[in-house]
Amino acid sequence: MSRLGEPAPVLLLADGWEDYQLLDSGAGRKLERYGPHTVVRPEPQAIWRPALDDSAWDAVDATFEGADEAASRWSFARTLSQAWKMRYGEVTFEARFTPFRHLGVFPEQAVHWDWMAPLISGAGRPVKVLNLFAYTGIASLIAARAGAEVTHLDASKKAITWANHNQALSGLEDAPIRWICDDALKFLNREVRRGNRYDGIIVDPPKYGRGNKGEVWRLFEDIPELLSLCRALLSDDPLFLVATVYAIRMSSRSLHNGVAEALSDLPGTVESGEMAVADPAGRAISSAIFARWPQG
Ligand SMILES: C[S@@+](CC[C@H](N)C(=O)[O-])C[C@H]1O[C@@H](n2cnc3c(N)ncnc32)[C@H](O)[C@@H]1O
What pTM was estimated for this model as a whole? Predict the structure, then answer.
């Protein structure tokens, strides 16, 4: 316990991957393996020295280069497939080299997939899960595989098409997943009015985003409303809520306080901290903060 009487922040390490590895890190970059491909991407947090020598870093398949976002791009050592399959547990999905340096999967999110799946499968009753800002849908597929009826929401049609493709790759075509292309806040307000409820909610909002009709999402301004709408949408016997935030100057304590306030009438405690992957030399790179309920 911290002096505030709350659990101290935790560092959750995603170490259950076969198809992903952080091979090395340092000198402002990270060397990773996504399925068959090795890639180098900028990582300003890696302020230490790489453990592997230059030859390992030079032998990669693809490098994301460029100082500023506008001029950044992938460069390839040879002709590569631009899309390939990866697996986490029983879920299969497609990874791609996106212009935004991401590959369609955020490996550190696995700590939440491993946490929520047994909550769903062990509930012993029908479970409804809402996945907001759901992107390529891996969390939706893991929840569906664990037995949940899932509502998957994203404002981007392209992202939903990618998630649909991942559903087919995972052999979950018949799973009860409702695909919704909408603005998150608009949808939540509508769901509250309609009286729909969910047993588990996953939220991974970006710092800045656009709804499908151009609605503007700004994390700091909008997250209080988002969390209180999520609270209103939780069922009478809720199982979980997990919120993650990437690449932003917000502490996990701040997100913790927001979630704790929104869920203050529920029993149990909120757990918060950082999500990371570690290289073989033991250097963990934390890319996101989280707060989730209930703890443990
Ligand atoms: C999963 S979030 C953040 C992904 C990743 N964790 C990061 O920080 O880059 C990104 C997703 O949110 C979606 N999005 C952005 N603004 C939205 C909005 N107002 N309503 C619904 N989805 C939105 C985007 O289409 C995208 O798929």
Answer: 0.95
